[in-house]
Specification:
CATH topology of chain A: Rossmann fold
Radius of gyration of chain A: 18 Å
Strand order of the largest sheet of chain A: 1-2-3-5-4-6-7-8-9
Largest interface: A-B, 22 and 22 residues
Oligomer: homodimer
Number of domains of chain A: 1
Number of strands of chain A: 9
Shape of chain A: globular
Order of helices and strands of chain A: HEEEEHHEHEHEHHEHHEH
Largest sheet of chain A: 9 strands, mixed
Chain lengths: 305, 305
């Protein structure tokens, strides 16, 4: 279904690990050496049936703390609606693995599995923990080089969950600010860590990865979606957020109300929904995944069913 | 959503372990002491939104080798269509756990995680490995005692995967033969081990669990879906089977052609489909799960959407 020949790809540094047919398309899992993280990285792509015949737009899905590329692939059920709309879905890993940085495996919410989609500036982390560059530049370039007849190079949206929901917001905002045009046509998030400079998860991550963020936390302000919205918004892409009301991380870590207020103050095109009784799990994500796929497919100009 | 009070249930031997909202309904996971297996047993139920207001029919889903109740709950995506049609889905575990039978943890395809949905007669296994009685009698009785306003007692269908696909076929056939009426209104299977007396998985399981099945294999004939169909068919319920053509277990273990031939020779109401390019995984199952939910919902008389 994809257009890569496994042996050719291996010669170019991309090795296929798995392939599974699902909803008429294929999930394909790859590993490759990364110049952003200086480690091997792994990702999985869902190629919808349409991508066998013509290149299709791409949705990036960034996962949360402790996850790999496989969580959303196994439990997010992206394939049903992505196959209907003709949207590819790219699922990166959440951090480098085995980088060998002292202390990277000590915490579940920092280091391995917790890259936070920033580019580290603290010397200890800066050689490897560069997930922002990996997700926004290196991985798209690799995909478009290896799958030119399956994936469109310039039709891209981004979504994510928790740490990855925040990552999606920041990837979209920062690439617009640095490039002067939006490579992402739309952004959505499930239960994002919406204001990380003000919550323990974000303070721990930014304080570790970012030089000068220990203490006052100034370095993290350029990586905080709520602050970016307050300072730089509105952005020229629509935003969709779903938040479960029974999410045990809602109080104290997620703070959707801060992002909501920032969006309102700037007139941002944003829909922030509260979903009654849902928690932080993939049962919540998979319940509303089709809505998010449709939101992005519409922004990317894909035909409605 | 369900009608059990957790503290009351614990007093009656049923303890709730988890509860997750999904597609407007709830997955609820329980453990209880079992009189069939003389161990604790675990199961998960999907209560669709409709079950909050009136009792609904129940689909049993029997999982395959190495699985627990959680595999189909996490990866089968039963909830989307079950919520639309108003069908509860009950997911039992695949064997007793920690029964203490010597050798039960030595093989991935025999003992723990591999109960094969038979009642063991070999003395070593017969105190614990009685998954047929557990699934067809004890568990339905427990459910209807604890959830009388959420689940209908007499509207029941059954489905399964691989070992559990075969289990579903045999549970439906044998309860019809023993009770003279069909407690299951319909039966379906993903990639069932369709003729176990003729394949290595089945020969190993029956040779271990069934007294007198070591050698000639006569004891297993009463637990083989293809032989039951040949000898006792047709049965008064419709049958749906999906089989992936890229399933690595198709040759040598699954033998859908034997069941197909038996159904044809008896005039059984059966649809046996080959699905091009699909393997044995939950990506295959989740792709066709909505079809199976609809098949059972129709047989159970639920209104179409």
């Amino acid at each position: 279904m994809s257009n890569v020949d496994a042996s050719d790809s291996a010669a170019q540094g991309l090795t296929r690990l798995n392939r599974w047919k699902a909803c008429g398309g294929f999930f394909e899992q790859y590993t490759h050496p990364s110049s952003s993280t200086n480690t091997a990285m792994r990702f999985t792509v869902y190629f919808p049936p349409q991508s066998a015949h013509k290149p299709v737009p791409v949705l990036y899905f960034l996962s949360g703390l402790t996850c790999t590329d496989e969580n959303v692939v196994q439990k997010g059920f992206v394939q049903s609606q992505a196959a209907k709309r003709g949207l590819a879905v790219v699922c990166p890993d959440t951090s480098p693995r085995g980088a060998g940085v002292d202390g990277e495996d000590e915490s579940w919410d920092f280091g391995t599995g917790a890259g936070f989609y920033v580019d580290a500036t603290a010397s200890k982390w800066s050689r490897h923990y560069n997930m922002f560059t990996y997700v926004t530049q290196e991985l798209p370039a690799i995909l478009h080089r290896h799958f030119p007849t399956a994936l469109l190079p310039d039709a891209r949206s981004i979504c994510g969950h928790s740490m990855g929901g925040h990552g999606a917001l920041v990837c979209a905002m920062k690439t617009f600010l640095s490039q002067g045009g939006p490579p992402y046509k739309s952004v959505s998030a499930f239960a994002p860590i919406a204001h990380p400079t003000a919550c323990p998860w974000g303070q721990k991550a930014f304080g570790g990865y970012l030089e000068g963020d220990q203490g006052a936390g100034k370095a993290g302000e350029g990586w905080d979606a709520t602050l970016l919205m307050e300072r730089e918004g509105p952005f020229p892409f629509p935003l969709l957020v779903d938040q479960g009301t029974a999410d045990t991380f809602l109080e104290g870590q997620l703070m959707p109300e801060a992002l909501e207020k920032a969006c309102a103050s700037k007139g941002q095109d944003a829909t922030i929904r509260r979903q009654d009784g849902y928690d932080h799990s993939y049962f919540f994500i998979s319940t509303f995944m089709a809505d998010h796929i449709d939101f992005h497919a519409n922004a990317l100009g894909l035909p409605r069913e």
